[in-house]
Amino acid sequence: MITSTRLPQSHPEELYAAVDLGSNSFHLVIVRVVAGSVQIIGKVKQKVRLASGLGDNMMLDDESLERGWRCLETFSERLQDIPRDNIRVVATATLRLAKNAQVFTHKAEQILNHKLVVISGEEEARQIYLGVAYTSANQGNSLVIDIGGASTEIIIGNDMEPIHLVSLNMGCVTFTERYFVNDVLSAANFEAAVSAAKELVDGVADKFVNFDWQQCLGASGTPQAITEILVAQGISDAIRLDYLYNLRQQCIDCATLDHLIIDGLEESRRLIFPSGLAILIALFESLEIKNMQISGGALREGLIYGMLENMQQNDRRMQTIQQHMQHFHIDIEQAHRVKDVALLLYNQLSAQDDVGGVDGEAMLVAAAMLHETGLHIEYKLHHKHGGYILGYVPMVGYTNLQRDGIKTLVLNHRQHISPEIFEQNHSEVRATMRSLVRVLRLACILSIRRKDNLLPVFRLEIDDEENWHLIFPQGWLKAHPLIDAELANEKWQQHKMGWQLSCE
Q1: For the Ppx/GppA phosphatase N-terminal domain, which residue ranges apply (predicted)?
Q2: What is the torsional sign of CA 414, 417, 421, 425?
């Protein structure tokens, strides 16, 4: 008798799809719900540049209509495998503005065999915020910005609730054609684009500036492109205004779009990058933004999660940690043991030294609980394996910058410390990242016995940023020679970094 070895197939009801017909690109994302988590199993993105076909008479030309329909033909086949009730198709700014939008939507619905909804600017902003909120952690009030091809959405909200939102008729496609005529990248063209954007933003700025927000998040597009450039140029940091000014000058130095070459800028975004950059500069200046990080989601994620109303999203960070602990077979008791010791050290550190600039506690908790991620590969270099893995797995609830911080901590939680990694951090957070590395390394050493109720009451005292003292009850270290020896080795590792550690 032959027994089938095929694994059980997924139920089709587990598959969901969102189609976003944007002014610059059309997107299709397909997800699968598994054990309460959402897994992306397919993404398709095509540069349609629908907004470029919108003339002064607000009519879409035949070429742009055809580009859009051809793209949807590629989407259509994939959507056939997904239940109709699990699909949402929406269109945004360009089809809101086009007088002949019905011509496009009528044929698009025939191609997709599904209803297409042209959503309002306010609804687009609301869905963007929900997509950001579902994939980012609640850190109080959040300012969310999404620069699209023909519109820009600005939202202030708290946790899952948008508080105030607007959609402005400015985007990277429309501004390219309006302010960078003949593809010229000049200081005058940038000034005109920034001024035009600021005029629109200034009309609504007061209602956002008056809010005290704890974080500013950029949803894909231009902010994502800028982050990729910063990483390629060796800068591990949030987006800041001085970086934007520097990128503007790099664009001007290139003189034309044909000659625009910036290390880290993808070819697919080259033509619309300067206009998006100009809009972002205007937003930073008018809304008094100090720094911006990249969110984990936007419109498409908002559409997906809107269909999953039963999803439990009370603590997205802990849900992410628990899923990775299960997937990588991490010792749960040891993870909590290291986390508890790390927090004990962190709290003593915080009482004596400034550890601001980043969400240090959140990164430390995640790194402590996931520091053994690489053990399922092998022991000797498990810190390197773990750092590599955590640089690529989804970290819902954390920004890309925080994920990089968690990766850095895991990579350096044992053995040799890599001094060059701290140089990638902005000066405001460099000292904090060094302190977090030291805390995690000590927590792992003090938990090396993998045993509860072993540690006595001990103190961490800080003379200055570099000189740390661990103080135990008299005779305790002598009675525990393993930990004493590990701490002695740690003194040497930290000494090589120019850090002083004493243990008594």
Answers
A1: 29-310
A2: positive
Where are the extended beta strands (E) located within 109-259? Answer: 117-118, 141-147, 152-158, 161-168, 215-218, 239-240
Residue with the two structure tokens 């991490």: 330
Pairing of strands 161-168, 141-147: unpaired
Q: CA-CA-CA-CA torsion for 404, 295, 268, 172, nearest 10 degrees?
A: -140
Edge-to-edge strands of the sheet including 500-503?
459-462, 467-471, 500-503
Structural domain boundaries enclosing 166: 122-303
Residue 247 lies in a domain: yes
* 133 lies in the same domain as 234: yes
Residue 118's contacts (CB-CB under 8 Å, 6 or more residues apart) are: 90, 91, 92, 95, 96, 101, 105
Count other Cβ atoms within 10 Å, centred on residue 452: 11
Q: Name which of 163, 303, 145 is nearest 226 in CA terms.
A: 145
Q: What is the pTM of this model?
A: 0.78
Spatial neighbors of 117 by CB under 8 A, at least 6 apart, are 88, 89, 90, 91
173 and 271 within one domain: yes
Domain holding 430: CATH number? Answer: 1.10.3210.10
Please check whether residues 112 and 189 belong to one and the same domain: no
Alpha-carbon span 298 to 129, nearest angstrom: 7
8 DSSP 8-state letter: P
User: Do the Cβ atoms of 370 and 324 come closer than 8 Å?
Assistant: yes
Indicate if 170 and 208 belong to the same structural domain. yes
CA-to-CA distance for 201 and 147, rounded, in angstroms?
A: 12
Do 297 and 339 reside in the same domain of the chain? no
**Rounded distance, CA 299 to CA 93, Å?**
13
Could you give the 3-state DSSP secondary structure of residue 216?
A: strand
pLDDT in tens, 316-353: 788 889 989 999 999 999 999 999 999 999 999 888 87
Closest Cα to residue 321, out of 128, 130, 137, 129? 137
Q: What is the pLDDT of residues 35-63, one digit of tens each?
A: 667 788 999 999 898 998 988 899 999 99
